[in-house]
Amino acid sequence: MRAASVPVNTRSYNERMTVHHQTFDVAVIGGGLVGKTAALALTQGGRRVALLAQTCASLPAGAAFDARVYALSASSQTLLERLRVWQALDLARLAPVYDMRVFGDAAAELHFSAFQASVSQLAWIAESSLIERALDAALRFQPNLTWIDSRAQGLEVKPDAASIGLANGSVLEADLVVGADGAHSWVRAQIGSKVDRRDYKQTGVVANFKAGRPHGDTAYQWFREGEIIALLPLPDGHVSLVWSAQTEHARELLELAPAQLAAEVERVTQSLLGPLECVTPAQGFPLALQTVDRLIAPRVALVGDAAHLIHPLAGQGMNLGLRDVDALADVIAKKEAFRDLGDTVLLRRYERARREDISALMIATDGLQKLFSVPGTVARAVRNTGMAFVGAQPLLKRWLVSAALG
Ligand SMILES: Cc1cc2nc3c(=O)[nH]c(=O)nc-3n(C[C@H](O)[C@H](O)[C@H](O)COP(=O)(O)OP(=O)(O)OC[C@H]3O[C@@H](n4cnc5c(N)ncnc54)[C@H](O)[C@@H]3O)c2cc1C
Q1: Pocket residues: Cβ below 6 A from ligand 1
Q2: Residues 387 and 282 in one domain
Q3: Which of 283, 319, 243 is CA-nearest to residue 66?
């Protein structure tokens, strides 16, 4: 055990926590949902954790729903249940998905159902801030967690510890650094992990609407002229839009007045859900595919979007990140007593455990995105015939559903 040194200007929610400790088992850098879940999983596993993050911002005044909404798979639900976060969620704000209807860009349509797949639901739709608030509440009660509201600026990996310089001037030491700092990860740059980034030249336009007709707990997806429009169910007859639009088109959509955007979404979805009323202003997120050559380095592991970035068409990026957390926590829980937390042998186990899942989802989402981007009638006929073929194969559909459930 290293000696604790100069006091650090940390902000701890727990009165019993001393802010004079500068040494930790793990330092989690980045407070998106993945980072906060990682910090919670590791501290519940008995580790002394420093989390560099901010608390969840409140929704803008008058906003009924968070603009950021996620489809969470069974694997994410299981992890959040184990961490006792799921149980704390306001169930009235969660929407189950029992059915999914996918419309090709010709006549083809695919229907997936939880009933046919013998599962309780295909996914849950949850607002980002709903989960984040529950995570914040859980983190607040962890005696071994120190919350630091500062950004990381310097990282030095030494044989006996990693040293992290903070924007507030303090320095932390930790056996292991978890880089959960998103797609433009600073941690990843420090370890020299090479990134291969392919811009989809698309922006994910998100907004929420009140629908005139019941959504029937169904998620809808339309493939249309190289763009993908999804309407996900939300409680109380609302739906959440994710429109993966070409950059220029997305710019136009983002400039529309709320009523105009609602009319446009209604038009392209052929009024399937009746008249729409925009209740959360639109926001845009640039879309890209990002692979990294290494998820680990001595004393460092990457999780979440810092480790992989995929197209949102399958709603799987967050689920993938939460599975990273699960795998890392599992490897650490099973570590031999003689091994240091930052031991490369240990971290390689994490990397090996994650490679296949990450590659499979990258290939699947990228493949689908490309398939529906190819212009021309022949390409359209081929992909819609493929959809019809999949639709007629109950076993294949079952397999696709189980793969998506994670
Ligand atoms: C339109 C759209 C729809 C999506 N829908 C779904 C869906 O339905 N289901 C799903 O599973 N996924 C979905 N995703 C993917 C999902 O949003 C991401 O995979 C997920 O948000 C990644 O979380 P993260 O915590 O890894 O990264 P982020 O959420 O990017 O968090 C990173 C955090 O690190 C902080 N940070 C950065 N640098 C530093 C530093 N130097 N020091 C300290 N902190 C730092 C940032 O401020 C930020 O808080 C969607 C994505 C998009 C774009």
Answers
A1: 29-35, 52, 70-71, 151-152, 180-182, 186, 204, 206, 242, 285, 304-305, 312, 315-319, 321
A2: yes
A3: 283
